[in-house]
Design goal:
mainly alpha; 69% helix; elongated
Length: 70
């Protein structure tokens, strides 16, 4: 019976391969959104409206996430 702490080399290789694939996918996604993230100057709520450039960035970011995000 297999346990959560299995030391089978094949299971370990499979686990490492799955984790590596997840890491690569996350890094690829991060490289796509970093431009949007870096353009956010006010990541907190404030009653004063955002300036036009930052508001456009938010709209573009949300459009991207709705189209390509997971």
């Amino acid at each position: 019976m297999e346990t959560a702490g299995s030391t089978d080399p094949e299971e370990l290789k499979k686990y490492i391969a799955i984790r590596e694939a997840m890491y690569i996918k996350a890094k690829e996604f991060e490289s796509k959104i970093i431009g949007f993230e870096m353009a956010i100057r006010r990541p907190y709520f404030h009653v004063r409206p955002l300036n036009a450039a930052e508001l456009e960035n938010w709209h573009n970011y949300l459009d991207f996430i709705e189209k390509d995000g997971d």
